[in-house]
Design brief:
Blueprint: E1 3-8, H1 12-18, H2 21-24, E2 27-32, H3 50-61, H4 63-79, E3 81-86, E4 92-97, H5 100-129
Length: 150
């Protein structure tokens, strides 16, 4: 992904540095403003309206936010995947890469299933041992690899 760099009031050395092949591969350079150091461009300073200039830049580059949001959504869509299988011990294995909203829903569903599993295990232990006591502690072993967005 190329990073966009906005250079305000560029001079010749700014343009020369931006043209360097070392930077061109990873950066997109955008230039705005007039030459502050050369006549006749620097005469514009007498009538320069900074607020109007800033408002123009906001209007001109607002589309980049939408473009970035669309790229992120498209990237999430292309990278999403869900793989599940039963391994050699008949253990259910789930590996998923989902957008944040869907991932949160899946996590909630798994948490609800885990809560139901706990109750079913307690019930099974009570049924097996009856009124004769049974274990005081039931240990469930979960293997979980959680990745949180920074």
């Amino acid at each position: 992904m190329t990073r966009r760099v906005l250079i305000l009031f560029p001079d010749e050395w700014d343009r020369a540095a931006a043209a360097d092949p070392r930077f061109r591969a990873r950066h997109e350079f955008l230039f705005e403003g007039f030459d502050l150091f050369s006549f006749p461009d620097n005469v514009k300073l007498f009538t320069f309206d900074a607020r109007a200039f800033a408002a123009k830049l906001v209007r001109k580059y607002r589309w980049t936010q939408r473009r970035d949001a669309e790229k992120t959504a498209q990237s999430q869509h292309l990278n999403r995947s869900v793989h599940w299988y039963f391994d050699e011990n008949d253990t259910f294995v789930l590996n998923a890469r989902l957008p944040p909203e869907i991932g949160a829903l899946v996590a909630q569903a798994l948490q609800a299933a885990e809560d139901v599993l706990r109750e079913e295990v307690r019930d099974a232990v009570r049924c097996h041992f009856g009124k004769n006591g049974g274990p005081s502690v039931i240990r469930l072993h979960y293997v979980r690899d959680e990745v949180l967005a920074a």
